[in-house]
Design a protein that fits this description.
By secondary structure, this protein is α/β, with parallel strands linked by helices. 39% of the residues lie in helices and 16% in strands. The chain has a single domain, classed as Alpha-Beta Barrel (TIM Barrel). The protein contains 13 helices and 15 strands. The chain has an eight-stranded parallel barrel with strand order 1-2-3-4-5-7-12-13, surrounded by five helices. A three-stranded mixed β-sheet has the order 6-8-11, with helices on one face. Helix 7 packs antiparallel against helix 8. The protein is globular, with a radius of gyration of 20 Å. Bound molecules: beta-D-fucopyranose.
Amino acid sequence: MATDAMPRFPDGFLWGVSTSAHQIEGAADLREPSVWDAFTAEPGRVKDGSTAAVACDHYHRYREDVALLAGLGVDAYRFSVSWPRVNSPGGLDFYDRLVDELCAAGVRPVPTLFHWDLPADLDWLERDTAYRFAEYVSAVVRRLGDRVGTWLTLNEPAEHTLLGHALGTHAPGRELLFDALPAAHHQLLAHGLAVRALRAAGAGDIGIANSHGPTWPASDDPADREAAEFYDVLLNRLFADPLLLGRYPDGVGELMPGDVDADLKVIAEPLDRYGVNYYAPARVGAPRGAESEWGGVRLPAGLPFSVRPIEDRPLTDFGWPVVPEGLTELLTGFRDRYGDRLPPVVITENGCSYEGLDDQDRIAYLDAHVRALHRAVEAGVDVRGYFVWSLLDNFEWAEGYARRFGLVHVDFATRTRTPKASYRWYRDLLRAQR
Ligand code: FCB
């Protein structure tokens, strides 16, 4: 970790932490099932065979968790609202209590309206799901809109499409490869309809949380460069271009269902902020006729690219390379690509999985990434906030409880919370920034 003082971020910069409903809430008996409950119940889907039925039991312990947020001194807390819970009697009451508790603690609530836990009877391959989403969003904003000023529509539609619908390593477990593209389009449409529903209810500060990372060609060979460009389109531009430019990258729109041009007008509703989840870049080359692997996910041989290891970099416990300058590169690249169309950026997730309470490796990771973010600010990118993933160790999807991303350790036998060294480091960083 660098020992020189952390540079100051602009006044009003929002410091926070992120979580998501399915990963922390538990209380599965008090909500309708989601696609994740069905997926988790299938043997072999989650590596340690665990479920999120109890998870961190945040549903019952939210007061303790809000006290942890207050102790950390964050300005804001990004959590997600569970659509299956809102569909259940009394479900919205929980978020009502949570928002009240946050406001009383002086922490700004920043809800994400969809973080992968789709109600089990819905399907993103169906266009109607987008309209159902807008109805659900209207119900949420009617109830919480008097206290919530900042909204995020979707979390990482790219990963939800790729892992959930193309490769089948996440719920709903489909392996459709490129036939998964309609799931991306319908999520983007859902986003646009949700923006309209939020605006109609008077909401003034709206964004989305997309995952992005620089794509590095494996070499200067034209075949590697072409493959890397394809990957960049799939993971970055497929989601950012329609939102920010109102069009799909060349060749993609033809693959989407429905009246794409009309839908793009909805999808490109102006945003107040653009959320970026950043973990690592990808090194990508031409296909090699064999499986490749990214961050523990196996990519089939038939894809028009192969992901290569990033060597000479430390790896987190998850095997993700630690590349802080990738964040600077990503943000300056976005500014260059999208110019005035890019709204102020907020880093809605950044973090790493490491074991242990004295988590010096997490401190080093976060320290380096916050500095890299500051370099983007110095380079003129309008960045307004940074949220660490995550407040708590939690249910890390197909990895179960094996990956610990929290600033706070959770003992999954007793649900006891214990702040880690990184919690104290972040608290001290925030104090110094005031
Ligand atoms: C992101 C997800 C989040 C968490 C982190 C580690 O892709 O949005 O829920 O799983 O990765």
